[in-house]
Amino acid sequence: MTSEPLMRMRLRVEQDIFVVRQLGREVARTVGLESQDQTRVATALSEVARVLLAVGLHAEVTFTVPAIGVPSLLVTMAHPGAGAAVRVAGQLQQIGRLVDTLEVDEGESETVVRMSRRLPPGAPLLTPERMSEIRAGLSQHVPGTPLDELAVQNQQLIAALDEVRAQRDDLARLNAELEETNRGVMALYNQLSQELEETNRGVVALYAELDEKSAQLRAASEAKSRFLANVSHELRAPVTAIIGLGRLLTDSGSDELTGEQHRQVDLIRTSASDLLTLVNGLLDLAKAEAGRIEPHWSEVDLKAMFGQLRGTLRPLATRPEVDFVVEEPAVPALRSDEVLLAQVLRNLLTNALKFTESGSVRLSVAPAGSDIEFVVADTGTGIPPELHERIFEEFYQVPGSKPVSGKGTGLGLPYARRLAGILGGGLRVDSTPGTGSVFTLRLPTAS
Q1: Which residues form a coiled coil (predicted)?
Q2: Quick one: average pLDDT of 81-94?
Q3: Phi/psi at 100 (nearest 5 deg)?
């Protein structure tokens, strides 16, 4: 495409209004604008020409198709003189709706009115050869008389009225369809409202039943906690007495026992110690479930805590095939309850040592975003994925799992998870059978 003008004409008298209208429509047609856009361009040109002549201005009208940018028809109406912009700008606002752009620029030597209309996507390609043909055709164009232009306008008006009538008929049809649809929607709405009301009644009844079941569940949980606490408390004294009597029987100051008697007394003491461990676990779990454990927040020195855990649990790591490693903490301190935190880590480490036959048991801590994660990793037997949550149930033990040392009560992990919740965090497990387990305690950095 080229920026060379397609056509020029002078606008001096009222007769030129008809000429510029005809010429504008013809140029719009030749460059590929649709029929309605041809009428819009022609009407906009005649109205701008009328405004200019009404205020006593003449102008040179130029039709151009710019070589760059969006393909469009550009019409420029230049008046040789300044000071005219204010006189015409306010009268062109309504005309601007007929075209894509309408601007009035005032320079030192002339006032220019520019308007443009984009060519449709399906318009023919305006090659240099085609542009030359258009210029040649426009140069031979002979303007019609005002009467001819009036006849053309009447035809356009009739076509517009026919289009409006067709649109009105379509609108009436759409309104009838919409009314029918609205009746269907209202019927459906009424049906849905009735069904929703019925469903709401069912939901209300279900909530009432759930509230009743929740109250029963809370009562059962409280009863269980009281039962565990009472039984544990009542069992602790006699079990402690059994352990003490067994110690007296084997004391050097007592009568000497035979080998068989000594073995039987040791068996009694061992069983009583295991029972005391179970009783203490039940009592701790009952306190946690009853909400009787209140954390005492303080600044915990993790290096000192890790040193204590390393020392107290070292006697349990007696097998040379297992490396017991407590790493230096990557986080120096944490605000938490030192006793409860140590209890959780002790339970996790003790459990890992019981079920790890070879490899390692490792404790580490590191930041995790805005929280802190304690990780206890072992190379033990591992846990199937479907049992990852069940191991946190009271007294549950993985089928077929046998501790390498010591005995499990099935209470250590449930108690550890409840303490983690009391500390404001959570406890999770990632494990694969035959590979090992990783228990992660995640706690917030501030309580």
Answers
A1: 147-209
A2: 72
A3: -75, -40
